[in-house]
Amino acid sequence: MDQEINLCSRNDEGPSIVRRRVLLRDRDAASGTMSRIRQRVTQSFVILSVLFLLFWIATFLYWNFYLSYMPKTAFSLPVYYYFRTGCESPALFLCSYPVANVSLIRNNQHVHTVLTFGQPYQISLHLEMPDSPANQELGMFMIKSTCFSVDGGSVSSSAHTRSPLASASSSRFTMLRYHSDLLRNLNLLLWLPAFLGGVAEQKQELEVELYSSYMNSPYDPATSVVIEILSNKVQIYSSQLHIHPIFTGIRYLLFHFPILSAVVGVSSNFFFLSLLLGLSYIRFILTPDQLRTDGPLSNRESNMNSNDVASVT
Predict the structure, then answer these.
(1) Is 182 helix (H, G, I), strand (E, B) or coil?
(2) Rounded to whole angstroms, how far apart are CA atoms 141 and 175?
């Protein structure tokens, strides 16, 4: 009778034990799955963080290279002329030619100029002149420029002229554009409200090229440009010295294709940084001890092991 009771109790406990084991197994499987998911999420977060950091480092390196390698694209320096007016003859408008000294020093330091060494520049003078009868009667006049170093010595000089009839000549004069009386009167009637309101002015803007390809020398750099207008009857509203770099090679690609150059530069930096980090990680994981134990034994080590076994026997 007691045996039958024990058998019945065992039969009753059997399903509960099976269910408990199934629950424990499912719980272990679920916990293992969750731990693997957490591990994968952590690994993915670490990998994404490292890739994001490498990307910003690559971008920072490219930006520093761009700022240090590329010169400023353009400069515009004001030109202020000085001349003598105390003439004895009342027929003369100016007693001397207008002369301006334009400084090329950057941040008040003699060793730093706005011109990058080894970079060719196109230097031109922008003139804003009134369309007055005095300038119209002036005709053509010459503009001369001379570059000086920090010690006051002449570096290079240019006497360029500009004329519609001789635009290809090495000497170019400049003058106001000619307008007939009929065109002048029509233009005056058309722009009369703007002239009366002060929105427009009767003026002309001229651009005179002083240097087509000027390159500053690192041994004797130019720190100033002296501009002289060889006319004592010229009238000028304002004047600007424009300096434009002439890009060639890598600078040409960086200036004319900035987006493509940025993509190539950042991608190259990112690739080399990733390669360096990957090799460092492999070198850190595979220590010399692991390489010796995991890899095949050398002949010297195998001979030493065989000698040790022979001495023991």
Answers:
(1) helix
(2) 7
The neighbour count for residue 79, using CB atoms within 10 Å, is 18
Dihedral sign for Cα atoms in the order 86, 91, 93, 98:
negative
Average pLDDT, the chain: 76
The pLDDT tens digits of the residues spanning 182-218 come to 888 888 888 888 878 777 788 888 888 888 888 887 7
Q: Assess contact for 119 and 71: CB atoms under 8 A.
A: yes
Amino acid at 82: Y
Q: Residue 295 corresponds to which tokens in the numbers above?
A: 């890899």
Q: What is the pLDDT of residues 57-95, one digit of tens each?
A: 999 999 999 988 888 777 888 999 988 877 776 666 678
| Six-digit token string for 185 | 């009167």
What is the predicted pLDDT for the residue at 22? 66
Looking from the CA of 24 toward its CB, the CA atoms found within 13 Å total 6
Rounded CA gap, 299 and 293, in Å?
14
CA–CA distance, 139 with 200 (Å, rounded to integer): 24
Using the structure block, give the residue that is written with the tokens 């002296």. Answer: 226
Of 100, 115, 99, nearest to 149 (Cα)? 115
Using only the alpha carbons of the chain, give its radius of gyration. Answer: 42
CA quadruple 88, 91, 93, 97: dihedral, nearest 10: -70
